[in-house]
Write a structure and sequence with these properties.
Two copies of one chain form a homodimer.
Chain A lengths: L18 E11 L12 E10 L2 E7 L6 E4 L4 E4 L1 E3 L11 H8 L9 H9 L3 H17 L2 E4 L1 E2 L6 H14 L3 E6 L10 H16 L5 E6 L6 H13 L3 E6 L7 H7 L4 E4 L5 H8 L4 E4 L1 H7 L6 H6 L4 E3 L13 H11 L4 H8 L1 H6 L16 E4 L6 H4 L6 E6 L2 E2 L10
Parallel strand pairs in A: 1-4, 1-5, 6-7, 8-9, 9-10, 10-11, 11-12, 12-13, 13-14
Antiparallel strand pairs in A: 1-2, 2-3, 5-15, 15-16, 16-17
Helix pairs in contact in A: 3-4, 4-5, 5-6, 11-12
Chain lengths: 411, 411
């Protein structure tokens, strides 16, 4: 039933020359101010006309077409762009979650548990698990996602994780610097040399990005700089896990290195906000991780007011955020981070695309990829107004439904 | 595809004489300590044997049966018993939700908006909307729910709301005392007389319970007492909306009146905890309402530690909690209310049944109704560990699937 969308490096296979229309859209969010009202480019009683998997036009509803879906007056939004996930892993860490309920703090050292489970899993099983998570994400309205390695932590297994990741997306991230693995305890600099040397050599051809967890207990400022520099020389763009568990140098390192995104940003100083606002680095918030680790929530309001470009992402991983639900992320962002629903929707679509430097995603402007979600609701407000409810009626990637669809064909 | 379960007053229609088995259950929660480990009565590698819609036996997996479902090693729990909903309404109040994001406090006066919309809706449409919400609740694992009136607020429309409610459940609640309607402004006592007189006369035959919103801006202590007394004389058990928006007399009124439940309990004093602990009144927490109204969360830990019997419910309604997701409620309860996952699961199953005085629901003990949920997870922990994810693979009521089921028949 599921259409397998084209997601290869540089892949741009068309869905076919036929025109596809999503008609009878009560409220269409384009995220293109040129196409409608306000920053979300809202159009009412609209039809989304798709050709070759791209947005061809936004018209008044009632368009004649070879192939038309009936949105039945519901709301259509751009698909979520989830710019921070760790979908390639085996095992779960529910026991750590339970321990946190009784006051145990989140400890990054738990990553080693998933490393052991992931190394012990076959290639096929690792791919099957990752694909299942991607299907869950599609069912929740995510049409594009970034996938990191980081549960291999040796040359062979980091490379294998990126092989799996590249089956799911062209936004693959090499995260050899997720944690110093147990076998390098007290030899962190040796491990950094490995990451920047043999591991990077093997992994760079499969990755678009390099990422480093810059935090007490993981990698420090100088190590993070070295890793981002080595990545850049290998042609990889930078990303940083920054300021998750306390104030730290991560955001500054990200900005100095010209990273596309600093992720987590739970603790942002005034200097961090200034640095981000004067840069092209997106602040990517991961409130589902703050939910599950019982951390405070980041001040999204302060970031927006300071002029920082923001994104929201799921951080799906077994240790700190075992969810792909962007609706849940949005509900938390408006309840806990001071964002408006408009800001939260923009951050989880256009913001995610910006954090991945993808100009043709995260919006439904003319020429953009026709990645869209039909909500079982009259407005995107319901993503937060109806928390916990599965409100995705259908997800379209390149104009084709990828979920068991709940939208009727018009003919 | 959906089986319509028998939910009439005193209804007890059997599903048939055939034995049904849910087999290959990796982890079965019975909530009956006699049937397994701990307070949750956990059994592993089990089969749930059902006869005439009731639990007949818990056996080791691998049972031969005429009709068997394959849980495929997943976790099975008792269906959620959602003891506080307002499913009979028309319209939505997303605009109020948006206003709260910019600092507007929750105002019970907004109830009048829903009253106007509900009065203006046809009987058929009101039933259609309520049934759709019940189907959403089934898909989320709720197998039994209480439904209140309270958006009619005159004799005709309260009666009509209860007619609709009684099509959904036998736990119907007359909530004429939800708010003093605009036409009785400054004549609250006249409205209380109407509620206790002509309205109660008309509504009592359709209701099992009477409820009153005892809160500043709604009904005061004496009015609440008068309403609960009148209900008792008419044969209705008591329930109270208590201590939602601030400290108040609601909990004490509920306990004094012998109410089955005091609901909300966001603000509980030491005296309130004492009163509840020494009573048969259940404290029903509604954290999804606190989420959506941006109130503080109740201290569930303090209530449990004080020996108070607790329940968790959704409070599904358009003003303060537009969700039926009990998984979301459980995730909030463990993140924000200091409950363990075991306590939260018990509170949303057995606790809800206790709040409705239903001995044969909320557990899978021998003879109980075979209302059960197959989770797409190895453990109920995942309800909170995977927040926002739709984890219900199948919902069974009286032993029969009521959702498009994702569990295979064994033969």
């Amino acid at each position: 039933m599921s259409h397998e969308p084209a997601h290869h490096h540089g892949g741009d296979e068309a869905a076919g020359p036929t025109t596809i229309v999503v008609d009878n859209i009560g409220l269409l969010v384009t995220n293109d101010p040129a196409l409608g009202e306000g920053p979300l480019g809202l159009a009412r009683d609209a039809a989304l006309v798709i050709e070759d998997g791209r947005v061809h036009a936004i018209e008044r509803c009632g368009v004649a077409a070879d192939d038309a879906f009936d949105a039945a007056g519901r709301c259509v939004i751009p698909g979520f762009v989830d710019s921070h996930t760790h979908l390639v892993f085996a095992g779960d860490r529910a026991d750590e979650f339970v321990a946190r309920l009784t006051g145990q703090p989140y400890d990054p050292a738990g990553i080693a548990t998933t490393v052991a489970a992931t190394r012990a899993t076959t290639d096929d099983e690792l791919l099957r698990l990752a694909r299942r998570r991607q299907r869950e994400a599609w069912a929740g309205g995510t049409t594009h996602l970034e996938v990191k390695s980081g549960y291999g932590l040796d040359v062979t297994h980091e490379h294998r994780s990126l092989q799996v990741a590249s089956r799911l997306t062209d936004d693959t991230t090499f995260l050899g610097a997720h944690l110093v693995p147990p076998e390098y305890r007290d030899r962190a600099d040796d491990y950094v040399d490995l990451v920047c040397g043999a591991m990077l050599d093997r992994c760079a051809p499969l990755a678009r990005w390099i990422d480093v967890f810059c935090e007490r207990g993981a990698f420090d400022r100088d190590q993070a700089r070295a890793i981002l520099d080595a990545g850049r020389r290998a042609g990889l763009g930078g990303r940083v896990h920054a300021n998750q568990l306390g104030p730290g140098p991560g955001v500054q390192v990200a900005v100095e290195a010209g990273a596309a995104s600093a992720d987590h940003c739970t603790y942002l100083s005034a200097a961090d906000l200034d640095a981000l606002a004067g840069s092209d680095t997106v602040a990517t918030f991961l409130p589902a991780a703050d939910f599950s680790t019982r951390q405070p929530y980041p001040d999204g309001r302060a970031a927006v007011d300071a002029g920082v470009a923001i994104a929201l992402a799921s951080n799906c991983n077994p240790g700190s955020s075992n969810t792909t639900s962007m609706a849940f992320v949005i509900a938390l962002a408006v309840r806990e981070m001071g964002l408006t629903i408009d800001e939260a929707l923009l951050a989880s679509t256009l913001g995610g695309a910006r954090a991945l430097r993808r100009a043709d995603r995260g919006h439904l402007g003319i020429g953009a990829r026709a990645d869209a979600v039909v909500l079982d609701a009259p407005s995107f407000t319901h993503l937060a107004y109806r928390p916990g409810m599965p409100l995705v009626a259908a997800t379209l990637i390149d104009g084709q439904p990828v979920t068991p669809d709940d939208i009727g064909r018009l003919r």
